[in-house]
Amino acid sequence: MIRAYVMRMAHKSFTSAKGPTQRQLRVGELIRRILSEVLSRGEVHDPDLNSRYITVGEVQMSVDLRVATVHVMPLGGKDVEGAIALLARHQGELRHLVSKGMIIKHVPEMRFRRDITYDQLDETRRLLNDERVRRDIDAPPRDDDGDDA
Question: What pTM, to 2 d.p., does this model score?
Answer without folding.
Answer: 0.70
